Amino acid sequence: MSSSETRFVGALNEELRALGRTGHRRRFLAGEVIFSAGDPGDGLYIVESGRVQISAVVGNGQSRVLATIGPGDFFGEMAVLDDAPRSATAQAEEETETYFLARGDLLGLLERRPQFALNLIREFSLRMRALNQKYADEILQAERLAVIGRFAGTIVHDFKNPLQVIGLAAELACSEHTAPPMRHKAADRIARQVERMTNMLQELIEFTKPSGQKPLLSQVNFARYMNPLADEIRQEIAERRVQLELANPPPEVSVRVDPKRLSRLFYNLLNNAVDEMSDGGKIFLRFATEGRELRVEVEDTGRGIAPEIAQSLFQPFATHGKAHGTGLGLTICKKIAEDHGGRIWARSTPGKGATFCFTIPLAT
To answer: How many angstroms separate the CA atoms of 233 and 156, rounded?
Structure first.
């Protein structure tokens, strides 16, 4: 509150205190309820000494303190002016002495003294601004905590599969009966999953930045990149009774990509599809070159995209009917595709699966 507003409020309170001396003096012990929510608005109180807490029941059914009123301030005016029951409860925080202006006396003063009415309206405005700012700050803080919780949930969800693979591979590598070639294969799987988890964390860090860094692109042969990645993903999702099939071989074309980030896009799309097929199913990968683009399609035999989220599919935290996850994975997919100069979209018929498509520019 500015110095001019402080002087104004002080002057108004002095005016009310002077008027209050024509009213009735009332004393309240510490903890005593002055009025309760639902009581009739019979008058306005001016605090002479002590402190009063104003509280109300909020949406979750709990009582919240809205304000604390001290000497020279007043309360109980809203119910007087709108001729409605009290919307809050006033309770003496300590032994308190007040002046009470009955509703009829206050309305009579407002009629006789328009300047006093105007000053009172200005005071209401200041109070409502302060209350609105208080709750705006609380809502912002609550939303920040909720976002942190959602990010934590995303990390747990996305790390679950790599950790399972690492656990099985470590058990195999440590077994006395495992042949050396299988030990090397298990160690390689562990290294791949650790690298994948590191990439996941980096993506989350980039997502929280105001603007992500552009990827460092390098020219690669798409077929040589895609075939080993498909084998890795195929082994992982087979443990969840889902088969990965390549509808056609990856084309022998050159693309400029960040291989680690592009792998993240594939893992996100395929794991989302697996999540929608709890009883097992199939995922088909299709590839086609169109003009100067490579188009990739990921089709599943799941339940399809819920109509409730079809329009907000790639927005943060858009999810529906899933036991885990927050929808952040598709947002990251969109970011990766666009950072590569491509685009991403989806089509679906509920009950007949979904198809996610994205493009990558061909290298020139």
So the answer is: 19
Token pair of 186 as six digits: 């298990």
Question: What residue type is 199 in one-letter code?
Answer: N
**Claim: this prediction has a pTM higher than 0.70:** no
Let me know: does 314 contact 268? Beta carbons within 8 Å: no
Written as six digits, the tokens of 3 are 């110095």
3, 69, 97, 196, 271 from 94: Cα distances, Å: 29, 11, 10, 60, 60
Residue 196: how many other CB atoms lie within 10 Å? 21
Is the Cβ–Cβ distance between 224 and 254 less than 8 Å?
no
Task: Label each residue of 305-343 as H, E or C.
Answer: CCHHHHHHCCCCCCCCCCCCCCCHHHHHHHHHHHHCCCC
Strands (E), 154-265: 218-221, 242-246, 254-257
Is the backbone of residue 38 left (phi > 0), alpha (psi -120 to 50) or beta?
Answer: left
E-assigned strand segments in the chain? 24-28, 33-35, 43-49, 52-57, 63-69, 74-75, 89-92, 96-102, 218-221, 242-246, 254-257, 281-290, 293-300, 344-348, 354-361
Residue identified by tokens 């890795």 is 232
The CA distance from 364 to 361, in Å, is 9
88: tokens are 């809050």
Distance CA 345, CA 314 (A): 9
What is the pairing mode between strands 96-102 and 43-49? Answer: antiparallel
User: For the segment 274-293, what is each residue's pLDDT rounded down to a tens digit?
Assistant: 888 888 899 999 999 988 99
Task: Say how many C-beta atoms besides its own lie within 10 A of residue 194's C-beta.
Answer: 12
57-115: pLDDT as tens digits: 865 667 888 888 888 788 887 777 777 888 889 999 999 999 888 888 778 777 777 77
